[in-house]
Design brief:
single chain, alpha+beta, 33% helix, rod-shaped
């Protein structure tokens, strides 16, 4: 992130111009959204590998 501040004088009216430059971080997207989603999707597929005779599949 970078920030620039410039004082501008136009038509006898003082003003300030503030500019922000932001940069994306794609690794944040991968770590926070894509990896957990992929992990949970694969975990859901493992449900079909549980044998039918194993008893109750969901317990509290």
């Amino acid at each position: 992130m970078s920030m620039t501040i410039k004082a501008v004088r136009d038509d006898n009216m003082p003003s300030i111009l503030i500019s922000f430059d932001l940069e994306r971080k794609p690794t944040f997207l991968v770590i926070s959204i894509l990896l957990p989603t992929t992990f949970l999707s694969l975990l859901n597929l493992l449900v079909f590998l549980i044998p039918v005779d194993s008893g109750e599949k969901i317990s509290y």
